[in-house]
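re: ur question from yesterday

yeah so i grabbed the chain u mentioned. its 381 aa long if i counted rite. heres the sequnce exactly as i have it in my notes:
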Amino acid sequence: MSGIDLWDDEPGANDGVSDLPALQVAFIGSEMLFAQWQASLSELGVVLTPLVTNDCSLVLVEESYAPALEQLAEQFSVNDAQRPPFLFVLDHADEAQCLRAFAAGADEYVHLPIAPEALVARLRRSAQVLREQKALKVQLDESSRIAFQAMSLNAELGRILQFMESSFACEDFAQVSQLALSALAELGLHASVGVFHPQGLEYFYEEGIERPIEREVVEIARNQGRIADFGPRTVVNYPHVGLLVRNMPLEDPMRYGVIKDHICFIANAMDARVRAMLNEQVARDRAVRIQATASVLQQMIGEMEAAKLELTRVSTQELEGMLDNLHVEFSQLCLTAPEEERLMHLLTESSERINHLFKSTASQDKSFQTLLGQVANTLAR
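ran it thru and got these structure tokens back, copy pasting raw so excuse formatting
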């Protein structure tokens, strides 16, 4: 194991050091070494202080100073990623001393003797590495945060799409409302929802716990635009849906905007499903009315057909009876055979025409009844 010995830095390596910004360094060690280095390091742009402050870029530790390791342990945790780097000063740089330094959390070490110029170069280099590491860590943290937000957003959008897909199977307002409340609960939101329809308002609460004040807020907010904010509460209005969320994340503006988009998506999808349910109900009611009308008409036509058939039967019987009577009376009219035959022919022809007319009318009524029955069956399906 070898240390970092900057005693042999080339002349001129620190030229222009006065142009660099002052460097704050905390020192934990003996008063003698502190006094020896304070003035010389100050001339080279390094402010040495016996106290560890927030302005300190790193900590210079004299390993041979007996209380040094104890003071470090009191002020810092070795595994603390936020602590400044430790630069240990070793007087021998033997293996035992190096092991103690690294066990105490040393990031680098130098060993004595070392010129002030070389020590300043090492301090500035350590501070630069620290700044680069911090900048890289900030970038990594920001990248991780953005990646996590993207994954969270994708998961939330997936849940909203799942709600939209599942809402098509809902058959009533209660089912679609509970599905929406479940989706909002998975987003960490506490909500309630109102469904507006021609018969009035139906309101559904999270976990079935009724909150009359929330119902009043939704009804009041109907005339205040698409979105109405009441502190941590937000109401989203659509023609058939009023959705209230009572724990909006006001402390996180970005999350607040994302949540508003989410609840608008859910409310919009729910409004579309409710509107479809209302249209389906109107269509079902209309079909029932048409079917009932068709059934009544079918029954009326059946009754009319039966009445006409009965009239045809009675008329036929009367006509046949009249013909029989005429045959009896013809013998008393003193008609010649050709005249009697001619008269009977005319009567028989008139009877056949009347029968044909009755049968034709009955056939048309039957066809119309069959057609009306087919229309009724089509409406029923």
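noticed a couple things. Confidence is low (pLDDT under 50) at residues 1-18. also The longest helix spans residues 253-330.
anyway ttyl
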